[in-house]
Design a protein that fits this description.
The complex is a heterodimer of chains A (771) and B (211). Chain A is of the alpha+beta class and 771 residues long. Chain A contains 18 helices and 30 strands. Among the domains of chain A are: 383-436 and 629-769, Aldehyde Oxidoreductase, domain 4 (2-Layer Sandwich); 440-622, Aldehyde Oxidoreductase, domain 4 (2-Layer Sandwich). In chain A, 62% of the residues are buried. Chain B has a five-stranded mixed β-sheet with strand order 2-1-5-3-4, sandwiched between helices. In chain B, a hairpin with a 2-residue loop joins strand 1 and strand 2 (69-76). The longest helix of chain B is centred in the C-terminal third of the chain and has 14 residues, at 161-174. Chain B is globular. Residues 1-54 of chain B have low confidence and may be disordered. The chains are: A alpha+beta (771), B alpha+beta (211).
C-alpha cells in the first residue's frame, strides 16, 4: 500500500495562499455591496440617553445607520455550546436596547457607498450617555467572586482530604501566580459579507464554525435553517476569537436587510479588542505539599478569573491539574468575578495555557525547595492513570517525552544552582515543564464522491483556520480512496455540506478524519462490489476481502496484475460518480456526549447510511467511557538574560509531543511551533492594559499590544512520539492546535528563574521585573 | 440602488437612493473640503469633531500601474493604496491586518521597495510601479520566493503571507542580509500570529543562496 498519512506533503492550499488567490471572508463583492462600520460605546456602564446620527446621515454616500432604535428585533439564540456556534454574549444581543455593559460595546453600524465614507460618518455619530459606576479590576474585586453555575461539578473537584494532609505535610509550597488579559489578535480581522436574496441569507464570515454560525443566524433572525448559508473557505487565524459568534455577522445580516443591499463589515484592529473576546486575567493560588523525598501529598489549585455581566465564561485553569500528577489529596476550584468588560472566550488552550503555567511553575518551585531535579520530581509523581476520573489514559508516553527533551536541550550540562551559568555577559537558564491538552472528539459527518474521471471529492462543514485541515484531510481521504493526493479535493467551510466539527478544542482532526475515512471507504466498497459482480471485470467472482484498492486501481491481493482501474469500472457501468456519506456519533468530551453536534436533522441521511458502514460501526463500538483522553508533551527552553537590561531572549526551545499518530510531519511541526511562539508572547510580551479610570483598553493596537516577531525567535527542535492512540479513532491522531502553548510558558519562566534567581509570578516577565 | 435607507431624516442633502449604481454615484458627485483624513485618529474625542454638517471629501481620478497594468480610478481622495487595491480593483491578495502600519500584512513593492500600502494614499502612487503578490508569478510559474514558502511551510492561515513574501522579495533586493540574524531582524515588520517565522527565515535563506 502506498502510505500517504504521515507524509510531510506540502499544504494543498499552498499555491493559492502564496499567490494571493485564497479568498478570505472580506474578499467577496456581491453586486451593489455597501460598507458597514461599527460605532462602539465609550463608557463602561450605563445607558444611551440620546444617539444623534444627524451629522453622520448628511455625509454623502451614507445609505443607512442602524442603532437600537431602528434595528430589527432578534430572537434569543439557541444552542449553548461552542459546537453549536454559541453566541458569545447571550444577554447582550446586538443593538436591541440602550444598555451599556462595557467600553467598546457595539452601539451602531453605519453603512455607506465606500469604506472611507462609512468610516468617516461613523465618527460623526454622537452619543449622549447616562453613566453608571462600573468595575474593571479583577484584583480589586476579589471579594465579589462567586462559584460559577455553568460547567457544574467539573469546575470544583476534590479527592482525598487536602486540608488534613496539608496539616501533616513535611514540605509545603504555596504561591499565587497571575496572568493578564490576552487578546488573540489573529491576523485576519473579523469580517462578514451578508447578502439577502428574498428571504434567503448568504453570509461569508470569518468563523471557526460555519455550521454553528448558520444555526445561530437562523435562530437569532427567526429563519428556517435551510434559508441560511454560511461560507468560510479560508480563515486568517482564529485562536478562539472566531470560535464563539460575536456581533459582526449578526449585525452585518441585520444591516443588509435594512439597507436592502449586500453589506461588508470588517472589524478594525482596535475594535477587535472589545468586540471579539479575549482571554481572562487569572489569579491562581497553588499549594503543593510532599513528603521529604518529593512524593506529592497535596495539590490545591484555586483559580479566580473574570466574567462579564452579560454571559459567563470560565477560564478552566485548574482542570489539567486534576490529572497531571499522582497525588492522593487534590482540590481544584474555579471562581469568577463579573466585570464591565467584554465577556472572555476560549483562547488557544483555554484553561490549560494559563493553568499549566501556574502548576508547572509551582512544581519547579517545589523541586528547588526539595533540592531535586525538576524532571525527577515529575517522574516520581508520574500519573499512570487519570486519578480524578479513575480511568486509564487512552495513551500516554510522557516519560519518553521528558527523556528525549532533556537530551535535546542538553539538560545534563545544566548546573541547577540559580544564576550559576553564563555565556559572555548573559545569564544562562534552562527550564522545563509538562504540556498537556484534552484530546477531544465530537460527532461529525462527511460526504465522499468518486467521479468517473478518477478524481474524488470530500465535503464537510468544518473549516481550515490555518492549521492544515485541508491538507491532512486530503491525506486521510487519499489513503482511504486509494488515490494519490493530487486526485483528491477536500472542500470545507460551507454550511451546506454535512456537518463537521467546529474548529476549537483541538478536535477537528480526531472528529472529522474518521467520517471522511469511513465515507471514502464506503465508496470504494461499493466500487469493489460492482467489479466482483460484473462478468466483464477481471475481478468477477472474487471475494471482496481479497481485493486491494490502491493508486486508483483494484487488484487481487495475491495477483497484483489482475485487476482494473476505478475509471474502467465506472465507465463500463455508465456511472458518472459513486458517493457515500458517513457520520460518526462519537464524543470524548466530559460528560460523555456533551458538546456533540446534534444528531439527525441535516445529516439524517449520513446517519442512516452509517448504520451499514462497517468503518463507522467499528469506530462507534469502542467504549470510550473507559478512558481519559489527553495529549502530552515536554517543553524545554534555554534562555539568555541580560543582567544589566533585564531583557530575556529564548535561545533554544525543544518540544517532544505525544499527540498520537502524526498525519503530516511538516504541518504538525508548524502547529506546535506556532503554539510555542504564542507562549513566548504570553511569558514575555503580551498583556492587555486597561485604563483604571474608565475600563478602556489602552493597548488596542499591534504597536502597544506586543506579539512575538521574527526577531524574538529561538532555535526550535520539535519532535513527536508518533504512536497512534488506539482508542480515539481508527486513525489514532489527536488534535495539536493547542498543546504547543501549554507548558511552554512555565518552561520559560522556570528558565528565567534558573538564569537569574528571580521568581516572577506575574506575567508577562517584562524587563522591569528582572532588574 | 433602491435602498431602504433606514434613515429618517436626510434633510438637506440629496439622498443616494436614486437608482444610480455605485460607480455612477462616485462619478457624479464632487465633494468639497479636504484634510479630513485626520478625523479617524481623533476617535472618542467628540468635542474636537466639527459641529457643522461635515464637508465631504473630494474624489479624484488617479492612474495606478499595478503589476504592469494601468488602471484609471475615480476614488475618494482618502483612499489608501491598500483599499484601492482591495476594494476598487478587487485585487484582494494584499491583506489588511491593522490598517496602521503595524503588522505588515499589506506590504507591496513600490519601485522595488517594500512599503506598507495601508500607510500610503493611492493618490501618492501615480507614476510608480506597484507590484503586489498577484504580480510575482510569471504565468503559472511561481516566483522562487513563493515556491520556497510552500516548500518550507512558511505560513499557516496564509493571511500575513502575501505581505511576508513581498517583504522577503524586497529584503533580498535590498542586499543587506548577511546572516540569519539579519533576516530575523529585517523581517520583524511582518507579524505572523500563526508563528511561521522560522520557516519564513528558512525560505528566504534558500532563495538568497540561489540568487
Amino acid at each position: 500500500m502506498n502510505e500517504i498519512i504521515g507524509k510531510p506533503i506540502d499544504r494543498v492550499d499552498g499555491k493559492l495562499k502564496v499567490s494571493g488567490g485564497a479568498t478570505y471572508s472580506a474578499e467577496y463583492f456581491p453586486k451593489n455591496m455597501v460598507y458597514g462600520v461599527l460605532v462602539l460605546s465609550t463608557i463602561p456602564r450605563g445607558r444611551i440617553r440620546n444617539i444623534d446620527t444627524s451629522q453622520a446621515e448628511r455625509v454623502k454616500g451614507v445609505v443607512g445607520i442602524m442603532t437600537y432604535k431602528n434595528s430589527m428585533s432578534l430572537h434569543f439564540p439557541q444552542g449553548t455550546d461552542p459546537g453549536s456556534g454559541k453566541y458569545a454574549e447571550k444577554d447582550l444581543l446586538p443593538l436591541q436596547n440602550n444598555r451599556i455593559y462595557y467600553d467598546g460595546q457595539v452601539i451602531a453600524a453605519v453603512m455607506a457607498e465606500t469604506f472611507e465614507k462609512a468610516e468617516y460618518a461613523a465618527k460623526l455619530v454622537k452619543v449622549d450617555y447616562e453613566t453608571e459606576s462600573a468595575i474593571f479590576d479583577l484584583k480589586a474585586n476579589i471579594s465579589k467572586s462567586y462559584k460559577p453555575s455553568s460547567g457544574g461539578s467539573q469546575l470544583q473537584l476534590k479527592r482525598g482530604d487536602a486540608d488534613a494532609a496539608w496539616q501533616n505535610a513535611e514540605v509545603k509550597m504555596e504561591q499565587t501566580y497571575t496572568t493578564p488579559v490576552y487578546h488573540h489578535n489573529a491576523m485576519e480581522p473579523h469580517a462578514s459579507v451578508a447578502e439577502w436574496n428574498g428571504d434567503q441569507l448568504m453570509v461569508y464570515d470569518a468563523t471557526q464554525a460555519v455550521a454553528g454560525v448558520k444555526s445561530l443566524l437562523a435562530s437569532m433572525l427567526g429563519l428556517p435553517p435551510e434559508k441560511v448559508k454560511v461560507v468560510s473557505l479560508y480563515i486568517g487565524g482564529g485562536f478562539g476569537s472566531k470560535g464563539f459568534t460575536w456581533p459582526n455577522p449578526i449585525v452585518t445580516a441585520m444591516a443588509a436587510k435594512m439597507v436592502n443591499c449586500p453589506v461588508k463589515l470588517v472589524l478594525s484592529r482596535q475594535q477587535m479588542f472589545t468586540t471579539a473576546g479575549r482571554r481572562s486575567e487569572t489569579i491562581q493560588k497553588i499549594a503543593l505539599a510532599s513528603n521529604s523525598s518529593g512524593k506529592l501529598t497535596v495539590i490545591k489549585h484555586d483559580t479566580i478569573s473574570e466574567s462579564s455581566f452579560v454571559d459567563e465564561f470560565v477560564e478552566t485553569a485548574g482542570l489539567a491539574t486534576s490529572m497531571l500528577y499522582s497525588c492522593p489529596n487534590v482540590e481544584i476550584s474555579h471562581s469568577l468575578v463579573r466585570l464591565n468588560k467584554v465577556t472572555p472566550c476560549p483562547t488557544r488552550a483555554p484553561g490549560e495555557a494559563p493553568g499549566t503555567y501556574a502548576i508547572e511553575a509551582a512544581m519547579d518551585e517545589l523541586a528547588y525547595q526539595l533540592k531535586m531535579d525538576p524532571i525527577q520530581l515529575r517522574l516520581l509523581n508520574y500519573a499512570e492513570m487519570d486519578e480524578q476520573k479513575q480511568k486509564q489514559f487512552s495513551s500516554k508516553n510522557l516519560k519518553e517525552c521528558y527523556q528525549r527533551g532533556a537530551d535535546a536541550i542538553g539538560w545534563s550540562q545544566r548546573n541547577p544552582q540559580p544564576r550559576s551559568m553564563r555565556k559572555g555577559n548573559y545569564l544562562v537558564g534552562y527550564g522545563m515543564a509538562t504540556a498537556t491538552y484534552l484530546a477531544n472528539r465530537i460527532a461529525s459527518a462527511a460526504k465522499a464522491t468518486l467521479y468517473a474521471d478518477g478524481h474524488a471529492e470530500i465535503l464537510s462543514a468544518t473549516q481550515d483556520i490555518g492549521t492544515g485541515t485541508y491538507t491532512i484531510m486530503t491525506q486521510i481521504a487519499a489513503e482511504a480512496f486509494g488515490l494519490p493526493v493530487d486526485r483528491v479535493t477536500v472542500k470545507l467551510g460551507d454550511s451546506d455540506y454535512p456537518r463537521g466539527a467546529n474548529s476549537g478544542g483541538s478536535q477537528v482532526t480526531a472528529s472529522v478524519g474518521p467520517p471522511i475515512r469511513a465515507a471514502a471507504l464506503a465508496v470504494i466498497g461499493k466500487l469493489i462490489s460492482l467489479a466482483v459482480s460484473d462478468t466483464a471485470s477481471p475481478l468477477h467472482g472474487r471475494k471482496e476481502e481479497d481485493i486491494i484498492a490502491d493508486n486508483g486501481r483494484m487488484y487481487l491481493k495475491n495477483h497484483t496484475d489482475r485487476g482494473e482501474s476505478y475509471t474502467e469500472v465506472l465507465n463500463r457501468k455508465g456511472l458518472q460518480k459513486l458517493e457515500a456519506q458517513a457520520k460518526t456519533n462519537v464524543s470524548t468530551r466530559e460528560p460523555q456526549g456533551s458538546n456533540a453536534v446534534a444528531t439527525g436533522g441535516a445529516d439524517a441521511a449520513a446517519e442512516e447510511e452509517s448504520k451499514t458502514n462497517p468503518a463507522v460501526q467499528e469506530d462507534q463500538n469502542v467504549d470510550r467511557k473507559l478512558y481519559s483522553f489527553h495529549s502530552f508533551g515536554a517543553q524545554f527552553v534555554k534562555v539568555l538574560v541580560d543582567p544589566d537590561l533585564g531583557t530575556v531572549k529564548v535561545d533554544k526551545a525543544v518540544a517532544v509531543m505525544d499527540i498520537g499518530k502524526v498525519l503530516n510531519l511538516k504541518t504538525a511541526k508548524s502547529q506546535i511551533m506556532g503554539g510555542m511562539i504564542f507562549a513566548i508572547g504570553m511569558a514575555l510580551l503580551e498583556g492587555t492594559a486597561y485604563d483604571p479610570n474608565n475600563g478602556r483598553v489602552v493597548t488596542r493596537d499591534l504597536a502597544q499590544y506586543l506579539v512575538p516577531v521574527n526577531a524574538d525567535m529561538p532555535q526550535f527542535d520539535i519532535q513527536f512520539i508518533d504512536q497512534p492512540d488506539p482508542y480515539i479513532s481508527p486513525i489514532g491522531a489527536k488534535g495539536i492546535g493547542e498543546i504547543g502553548i501549554t507548558g511552554m510558558t512555565a518552561a520559560i519562566v522556570n528558565a528565567i528563574y534558573h538564569a537569574t534567581g528571580k521568581r516572577v509570578r506575574e506575567l508577562p516577565v517584562t524587563l522591569d521585573k528582572l532588574i | 440602488m433602491g435602498n431602504n435607507l433606514g434613515i429618517s431624516n436626510t434633510d438637506d442633502e440629496e439622498p443616494s437612493s436614486n437608482g444610480t449604481t455605485r460607480r455612477d454615484f462616485l462619478a457624479q458627485i464632487t465633494y468639497a473640503g479636504a484634510g479630513l483624513t485626520l478625523v479617524p485618529l481623533l476617535a472618542g474625542t467628540k468635542d474636537i469633531l466639527p459641529q457643522a454638517p461635515p464637508p465631504n471629501a473630494e474624489t479624484a481620478t488617479i492612474n495606478l500601474t499595478v503589476n504592469g497594468q494601468k488602471h484609471a480610478l475615480n476614488i475618494d481622495e482618502r483612499t489608501t493604496l491598500l483599499d484601492a487595491l482591495r476594494e476598487n480593483l478587487q485585487m484582494t491578495g494584499t491583506k489588511k491586518g491593522c490598517d496602521h502600519g503595524q503588522c505588515g500584512a499589506c506590504t507591496v513593492l513600490i519601485n522595488g521597495r517594500r512599503v506598507n500600502s495601508c500607510l500610503t494614499f493611492a493618490a501618492m502612487c501615480q507614476g510608480k510601479e506597484i507590484i503586489t503578490i498577484e504580480g510575482l508569478a510569471k504565468g503559472d510559474r511561481l516566483h522562487p520566493m513563493q515556491e520556497a514558502f510552500i516548500k518550507h511551510d512558511a505560513f499557516q492561515c496564509g493571511y500575513c503571507t502575501p505581505g511576508q513574501i513581498c517583504s522577503a522579495v524586497g529584503l533580498v533586493n535590498e542586499g543587506h542580509v548577511h546572516n540569519d540574524a539579519d533576516i530575523h531582524e529585517l523581517m520583524s515588520g511582518n507579524i505572523c500570529r500563526c508563528g511561521a517565522y522560522q520557516n519564513i527565515v528558512d525560505a528566504i535563506k534558500e532563495v538568497q543562496n540561489i540568487a
